Structures are given as C-alpha cells and as structure tokens.
Amino acid sequence: MNTLAKKDEYVRARVPNELKVQAERILKEVGLNTTDAIRLLLTQVVNRGGFPLELRTPNRTTIEAMNSVAEPKKFSSAQELFTDLEDDTDD
Asked: Per the record's keyword annotation, is Repressor included, yes or no (predicted)?
C-alpha cells in the first residue's frame, strides 16, 4: 500500500489568477485538474531526483538553432540543397 495514501498533505501556492485560469483550461483538455498536475510534478521530482524540466536560459547558439528549425531553409533544386550542405561542412 502506498504510504502517501495514508495521510495526504495540503499544498498551497499563490499564483496570478489569469495563469491559474489558463492552466486549468489546458489541463481540463487532457483530463487533469490542478491537484493532478501538482501531484504529477511532485512525483516526477521524486522519480528523477530533481526538477523534471530544464530550468535555464538557452545561449545564443541554442536560440539560433531552435529558430532555424522553426524557419527551415528552402531550396529551388536538389543541387542547391547539396551545395548548402557542403558549405555547412566546411565550417
């Protein structure tokens, strides 16, 4: 039997109302409520031995790489693509 089920604790957090409303709307779409989401987060913290999301600001190179994926290069021919690939390997 899960020892956490024997005695539950309450967790309180102050968040901006609009953040709460938006989050609840999204969670409802996937069949969760705020309590479920918090429980999932805390479970993942325990299972992973740390926070389950990366909490850091990406550096300039990473941001540029993410943006390049969002805006892929377009080529008018296969040869143009191969030329671009060859140019990238020369760096």
From this structure: no
Residues 65 and 43 both lie in one domain: no
33, two tokens: 């409520």
15-56 pLDDT tens trace: 999 999 999 999 999 999 999 999 999 999 999 999 998 878
- Asked whether 41 and 13 are in contact (CB, 8 A), the reply is no
* 67 & 36 share domain: no
Q: Rounded to whole angstroms, how far apart are CA atoms 30 and 28?
A: 5
If one counts the domains in the chain, the total is 2
Instruction: Please check whether residue 67 is in contact with residue 59, taking contact to mean a CB–CB distance below 8 angstroms.
Output: no
Mean pLDDT rounded to a whole number for the chain: 87
Write the CB contacts of 24 (distance below 8 Å, at least 6 apart in sequence).
33, 34
The domain of 80 spans: 60-89
> Looking at residues 53-71, what average pLDDT do you find?
81
